[in-house]
Design goal:
By secondary structure, the chain is of the alpha/beta class. It folds into two domains: 200 residues, Rossmann fold; 170 residues, Glycogen Phosphorylase B (Rossmann fold, 3-Layer(aba) Sandwich), CATH 3.40.50.2000. The protein is 40% helix and 17% strand. The protein contains 16 helices and 15 strands. Strands 3-2-1-6-7-8-9 form a seven-stranded parallel sheet, with helices on both faces. The chain starts with 21 loop residues before the first strand and ends in a 13-residue tail after the last helix. The N terminus is likely disordered.
């Protein structure tokens, strides 16, 4: 049996043990629901667990139909399921119900070091009230452009009250995380406080051009040399898809063999199918199947102006797609037009159409841009994002801890 000579141990070379925290994460959307908030929160929760933290995940109980399709979750995460109600216009999503009393009881028995709230719905508001009742540190995410959504859902008269509620909500937190510097500046101008930029990562191993399949492209009606343009996301008014159709029609006038693919579902599907009957509608996809759909596209069009980040932008870049987008959210911060994608000024629809025509006309430029886009996406590692997220949690904990005053060393008079 080998013996260990302790004289050979250099204590200074041993890494300091990571201080484990007890974290409560509250969200009203989570996989298997498919949306940017759900998917990014799942990556953060997994990353926090990998960094040796005890995570308690509090979310609404999802429908039996949705849960039947759910993969086995992370069994090391303590899940607390609450009552939920369907979200209007989003039948596959559920929002929580007021639960302050239950959360106070839960956290009184098992007190977390910090509470993080990902969504500002009834469950999120209850979590904020419960945390403040127990004097717990609280952090939050600002993830949805409610003020931008208003114009698409006739909420004009409610836009000021909604923004007032959001400002009140987040300003009661010790820190609020936002995905881009642009969003931080916008919210700061509107009176939001204690804002920290924490971006989003992308899984560049899953979203990879190597997943491209000629057989899948053939099922869309595309030949080997045909240009395939596509979109991934919810088919809804706030996604500005009329501009995408205008860009498609402009390209089709130049090259009739162009193909258009929509990946996703939503209330505009029937209208889009009427306006572009030759388009292929792949429906909602996830996991490796979604990654293969991205990789099958040559040109990714993203005309949305309502994103706080837009995970699909980085997923498309990682997948080797050349991207055309407006200069906002993730695209505005990550893309240099003509280098690793093409940008149009925010709201300049004619410029978006023109950029799409330029991208569609030059296959060599498209390939060079796609290669640079992939290189950009590969730098957005989720482990780095989780480390930044963790740092904000630690700053909130430190903000709540009282300062220690050392006794005076001066002799008494």
């Amino acid at each position: 049996m080998n013996t260990l000579d302790t004289d050979d141990i250099l204590v200074d070379d041993l890494p300091a043990p990571r201080h484990s925290r007890r974290l409560a994460v509250v969200t009203e959307t989570y996989p298997p629901e498919v949306n940017g908030v759900a998917m990014s929160m799942a990556r953060v929760v997994d990353g926090l667990h990998r960094r040796n933290h005890d995570v308690q995940l509090i979310r609404p109980r999802q429908s039996a139909k949705l849960m039947s399709r759910a993969p086995t979750g992370n069994r090391e995460v303590d899940e607390v399921l609450t009552k939920g109600l369907p979200v209007p216009l989003y039948p596959n999503l559920r929002m929580g119900v007021p639960s302050k009393r239950a959360l106070v009881k839960l956290w009184s028995l098992k007190r977390p070091d910090v509470v993080h709230i990902a969504t500002e719905g009834p469950l999120g508001w209850s979590a904020l009230q419960a945390a403040q009742h127990l004097a717990l540190p609280v952090t939050s995410d600002y993830r949805t452009n409610f003020h931008a959504y208003g114009r698409h859902y006739r909420l004009g008269l409610l836009s000021k009250p909604i923004m007032g509620y959001l400002r009140k909500f987040h300003n009661r937190c010790d820190a609020t995380m936002v995905p881009t510097e642009t969003m931080r500046v916008l919210l700061a101008e509107r009176g939001f406080e204690r804002l920290h930029v924490v971006g989003r990562g992308v899984d560049a191993q899953r979203f990879d051009p190597a997943r491209r399949s000629d057989a899948m492209r053939a099922s869309w009606g595309a030949g080997l040399d045909d240009l395939v343009m596509g979109y991934v996301g919810r088919l809804a008014p706030e996604k500005n898809l009329g501009v995408l159709l205008a860009a498609y029609e402009a390209v089709k006038a130049q090259r009739p063999n162009v193909k258009l693919v929509f990946v996703g579902d939503g209330p505009l599907r029937a209208e889009l199918a009427t306006r572009a009957p030759e388009a292929h509608f792949a429906g909602q996809r996830s996991g490796d199947d979604l990654a293969a759909h991205y990789a099958g596209l040559d040109l990714f069009l993203f005309p949305s102006l309502t994103e706080t980040f837009g995970n699909v932008t980085t997923e498309a870049m990682a997948s080797g797609c050349a991207v055309v987008a407006f200069e906002s959210a993730a695209a505005g911060e990550l893309i240099r037009s003509g280098v690793n994608g093409w940008l149009a000024g925010a709201g300049r629809e004619a410029d978006f159409v023109a950029a799409t025509r330029v991208a569609a006309a030059d296959a060599q430029a498209r390939r060079a841009v796609a290669e640079q886009g992939r290189a950009t996406a590969r730098r957005l590692d989720w482990s780095d994002i989780t480390a930044r997220f963790e740092a904000v949690l630690e700053s909130a904990i430190a903000r709540q801890q009282p300062a220690v005053t050392l006794p005076s060393l001066q002799p008494a008079a």
